Amino acid sequence: MKRIEIYEVGPRDGFQSVCTYIPMQTKLDVIERVMNARISHIQITSFVSPKAIPQMMDAKELATVCIEKYPNADFSALVPNLFGATTAADTGLKKISYVVSLSESHNRANIRRSHEESFEELQRIMRELPQLDICVDLATAFGCPFEGKKKPEELVDFIRPYVDCGIKTVDLCDTVGVANPAQVRETIAAVNAAYPDLALQIHIHDTRNMGMVNTLAAIESGITAVQSTLGGLGGCPFAPGASGNLATEDLVHMLCEMGYDTGVDEQRIVEAAKYEHEMIDGVYSGHLYKIENNI
Ligand code: COA
Ligand code: ZN
């Protein structure tokens, strides 16, 4: 049975889309349920400016509590700069996702930096915090609202300096949900051919109902580390049409049905999604927890 590692990113990507503040205890309760369903790769928060994303203002406290409670879990957090990386490391986190967008316009809109500035900042982080395990989250890898789609060769060229400076993992993010399975296959093949030792992860948004097919295309192209969010939580009540990632429990169900080994407790992950749906008012795209609970 082929093993697929599920990376739950809901406590970061899902929660950040919820406009009203979610009490920290509720966030911790969701994380606990995900852990109890035997998913221990969890992006628990992001260390970003509270002015940019007020939802993440409790990042430091939340990370400290999580690490104390689950010292052996594989937690990470998203960071956009050295300030965030330093705060993350201070809490005891060993892993970060450093976000940079393939499209420069999106990079400027999201983190107010040019490509060059983002790359320099990463080098600063690597110099000052060499103990951190860094995954580069490549946002808009499959298309951008401002610049459209780029060719796989452009993506390959873009990540070359990152690979050359020692980055070992890149997460290909379909930030606005515009990828298609052929593009996913072509992109992964191009990256694998150029950098056979680079580990890849995939992060697909379900905006156009292609979360599952694109994620499966990535898995069938050899990717074994896959990101998703509990319940498919995402989007924003104030941004009609916005959508979250592929729902973790739906992905787990499909993979189990297909004979993959995820190690996840399917029943518990569905219950976790139901709990989150009850507790957090947001936009959910998951199917399974609704079917199983007559919602
Ligand atoms: N964590 C907490 N606070 C931070 C921070 C971080 N990582 N980085 C900067 N700040 C604070 C600064 O201390 C400063 O605070 P002050 O106004 O009280 O002095 C303020 O934020 C502005 O700092 P500055 O360096 O000028 O940043 P900026 O205004 O150019 O914003 C980012 C840049 C990257 C910090 C901000 O755009 C951001 O956090 N973006 C996150 C976007 C995001 O999470 N997107 C979704 C995930 S992909
Ligand atoms: Zn995302």
CATH class: Alpha Beta
CATH superfamily: Aldolase class I
What would the average pLDDT be, to the nearest integer? Answer: 96
Give me the Rg, rounded. 18 Å
Ligand species: coenzyme A, zinc ion
Structural class assignment: alpha/beta
Strand content: 15-25%
- Residue share in helix: 40-55%
Number of domains: 1
User: What is the oligomeric state here?
Assistant: single chain
Indicate the low-confidence ranges by residue numbers: none
Kindly report the spatial arrangement of strands forming the biggest sheet. 1-2-3-4-5-6-7-8
Shape: globular
Order of helices and strands: EHHEHEHEHHEHEHEHEEEHHH
Describe this structure in words.
There is one protein chain. About 45% of the residues lie in helices and about 20% in strands. The radius of gyration is 18 Å and the shape is globular. Helix 2 packs antiparallel against helix 11 and helix 7 runs parallel beside helix 8. The protein has about 300 residues and is an alpha/beta fold. The model has no long low-confidence stretch (mean pLDDT about 95). It has one domain: TIM Barrel (Alpha-Beta Barrel), CATH 3.20.20. It has 12 helices and 10 strands. Strands 1-2-3-4-5-6-7-8 form an 8-stranded parallel beta barrel, surrounded by 7 helices. Strands 9-10 form a two-stranded antiparallel sheet. The longest helix has 14 residues. Bound molecules: coenzyme A (COA) and zinc ion. The site of coenzyme A has 18 residues, from helix 4 and helix 5.
